[in-house]
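Case study.
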Amino acid sequence: MEFKLPLGVVSNTDVSHLMRELAALDEFFIALKARKAGTSVAPPRLTRLLDQISKENKLNLLQTSHRKSLSNQLAKLEKSAPLLHISFAAEPSARFLEQILAWLRENVHSFCLLQVGLQPSIAAGCVLRTPNQVFDMSLRVHLEKEKAFLLELIRGAVSER
Amino acid sequence: MSSGGIAIIVGLIVSITGLFLWLLWRPYRKPKPAAGAKTAPPVTRSTLLERAQEDVDHIFNDEFREELRNRGRLHFEKVIGENAMFLQQDLRETTTQVNEYMRTEITRTLQQEFKKYQESISDAKQLALSSIEKTVATIEQQRHFLETQLQAQAETQKARLLEHFESEMASIVNHYVLRAIGNQIDLSDQLEYILAELENNKKAIIEDVKSGI
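After joint prediction, the assembly is written out as follows.
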């Protein structure tokens, strides 16, 4: 079955969090086996992200094999998933970021991870950095493309005076 | 010497000569025998000479000599005074002539020098005028050259500024937009634009991501 990565997992930091959470869950189950009879058990609370990824991949985290499988997948992701760096002029909302990520996973790679940066000088648009290239999709580049039109506007304004 | 002085000297000489001749003639004159007197003994030549000598001594006594000396001194003083006056007059005339001559010579020399000086000044003035004219012409040329150069530089600078403005126009407008409405731009409004841009660069992104894996 193909592994599904929810849109909530945005960056490699999220992957690392999930892996630490799984490790904590494993340790809990190991401690559960070693506990004395009659002692109280306090299971660790699962985060929304771990719950979501386990549901989407139909994994039962109570089973060691499933946890192992998920852990392997996450380790594999951490090592090999394409990491793209994207910068905006302001802090993007989660909803906005999900839409960008959805497009990337749909059109570029299904396991794309994003590292979000802030660059106020962009003004509008974004700058995407792939492993070898930088795609400047900011307003400045857009204006650069429309320079002829801008010049025409300025000349028109000057000649009217 | 004046004619009065000469006349006095001549008079003195004539009177001394007359006195001398009278003294010489007196021993030869026959004396008139006095009434009732005896005939005097014959007079010899030696007696006459002795008597003449006595008479000379009698006439040219010390008083007479002193008188003559005084007269001679006075005359000498007068002659000296007159000569001094003449000499003074001559000296004055000579001085006047020398002064006149000096004045004339100095005036002539000064006029010559002034003339030379004026000529030198005129030459220097001409030279200075010529030099000033050349300098003015050179300055005019330099001014014209500088004006041309400045105009060319101004045109170049203007063109450079325009070129710079045109090349940096996108950044300028971007900066202006950022300053003007930077805080009011909502990322949600840009989603459509960003997705469209991603779509435009889709192929390149995919290729780069695949090459990076």
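Observations recorded in class. The radius of gyration of chain A is 23 Å. Residues 82-145 of chain A form one domain. We will return to this complex in the next lecture.
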